[in-house]
Amino acid sequence: MTQTSEAIAILGGTGDQGLGLALRFAGAGRPVRIGSRRRERAERAAQEVRAKLPGSDVVGLENAEAARRAPIVILSVPFEHTAATVKGLKPVLEPGQILVSMAVPLATAVGDGALRTVGVWQGSAAELVAGLVPEGVRVVSAFQNVAAHRLMDLDHPVECDVLVSGKPKDRAPVMALCGLVPGLRAINGGPLGNARIVEQMTALMIGLNLRYDLPEGCGVRFTGLPEGAPGASAGGSGPT
Question: What is the DSSP code (8-state) at residue 134?
Fold first, then answer.
């Protein structure tokens, strides 16, 4: 595997949310590998990032090749494509890599609306992913509730908390990524099983955006958490 230690792979980086993360991480100076099922789409997305951020290290690749090139791989694909995408990555994912699940089981996957979710046998999309990856690949849940519009608006901070769930040693590198994005704060979301709560919040927030006519998307802030406390800032693993 040819990896750059600071690189971040974003599979589904051609969609609004994935592209927004690519812009933010590239803007912070990190190498970004955008993945897509079709390489030409990934290359177009990478070109868009480089046009906005001249000199940034951003490359568009097919999903498997992008996953080979980064220690942290962010899965930003619709729920209905999640299982197939992860299964396609099995030959290239290696023990020690972190796979971040952003998937939300919205009912759009079965032709219903985005204001509801569908049941997942494993409990959450993140736990589904954990059951599909090769042994030793570390699965973390994060970034489900960050609005794409806010990510792509590089002139303003995002102003949102990110609940990061997984094993403590796996959470820490993902929480550190939040510190690269102005306005994002990482929150220790506990074990991966808590992803089922975070994923459900997304449908609620979509409803709020519609009812309050918020095209930029709302965000979540948790009050009463002291800055600098373990698990309440970027990079801290905190208690389980």
Answer: P
